[in-house]
Amino acid sequence: MQTIPRHPSTDVTPANASAQGAWTVADQAVVSLASFAATVIVGRTLGKEALGIYALGPFLFWLVAGVANALVWVPYTARACRLNEVDRRRYRASNTVMAAAMAVGLAALCVVGGLLAAPLQNWLSPFCLAMAPLSFLFLLREHVRRVFIADFRAAGLLLLDGPIAVLSVGSLLTLSHNGRLTPSVALVATALAAGLCLPVVWRLTRGGGVIAEELSRDARSNWGFGRWMLVVAVAWLIGDGVLRWMLLGMHGMDALGVFSAAFSVVMLANPLILAMTSFARSWAARVQAADGTPGLFTHTVRLTLAGIVLAAAGMFLLAWAGDFMIQVFFGEQFADPQLVLLLAAAVCLQAVAIPVDAALTALELGKKMTQVSLLQLAAALLVGAPLVYAQGPMGIAWAMIARSAPLHILAWDAMWKHYHSDVDLPKPSHARA
């Protein structure tokens, strides 16, 4: 396999980019609202403790899914737009096989965990067993979503995520009405709804064909960049996971339920945050391929300024309406206005960094992103550990705010230095003469 010149995407016009961004946000809105509705159903039906158990499921999945994000989705997003159509289909098929292998491995680990926890005779064993189908199907569904967003085909996602949302919420409402809802049953029900993605996964695999030699070469190529992103994912997993488990151990499941309710309301901003994170990386890769580093730098500055305005408006809106929404959706026992305010500030600070994070990904500055993530981890643990002990859920919110500082400072420093050096990217390795 020989290296070929890059094939800049021709679909990076402002009009098309705006349309793709709108479709991406719309699809993420469907996904996030369905997730929020599921959380409300479980919390209303089963109470604080059950909500805490249920909320651990998607939370832990998204942390572990950082492995697939690092080794499959980020490399595909950064590189696919620089391949011709034939090689892109082959690269897409290879990455789909990698994602499927990770899904199988993750599900197997959950089954083993459930069997090992069985003698404890508590919530942990059924929780782990329920996480097996959830991990498998959620990972494949997210793979489909990331590929469609990276390929600027986000409009087609609504045809998949709409039915999944209806099936997921409908099944939970039915189980609640029949008195058969438990945290583990809720996890399995939401997982099975995501199974509608399987025909699409099959088409992605068959569309380009899978050859063992190319699969191995693509895996090694992804590892070259993805290994740094894997460290980023692990650091994020440790930072969030440790603090939440500390909250559970020090203050009990009720405290975790209160935090989960406040976090769920604040994360109503997810349709914008998650959608723009995925879309911004795809857009940045296309801008870099077409206009080089100078064009990418200008693009990043403009998006960041727009992000500051949107984030400020979002923070005030969430702080104003968040506590009221908690009482409406979950009940007065979950209310904590100050927690909502701090979580809103933390999430909005994270949102402002989306454009520069996308630029570093497009430039494949994985080592610098790793350094940033390790400093974020240190800041989160140094601030969060004592505050979780002293203040419970508030400690996690303060830690989320503290870890934003290294991201903004070091990421922009790296972007500025790369802009002045204007070092070109390596050509895509997955290419044919």
TrEMBL record:
Transmembrane segments annotated in the record for this chain: 53-76, 97-117, 123-140, 152-173, 185-204, 225-247, 259-280, 301-320, 340-360
Keyword entries, A-Z: Cell membrane, Membrane, Transmembrane, Transmembrane helix
Bilayer topology annotation: Multi-pass membrane protein
Domain of life: Bacteria
GO CC, alphabetical: plasma membrane
Compartment annotation: Cell membrane
InterPro entries (UniProt xref): Poly_Biosynth_Transport (IPR050833)
The protein, known as: Polysaccharide biosynthesis protein
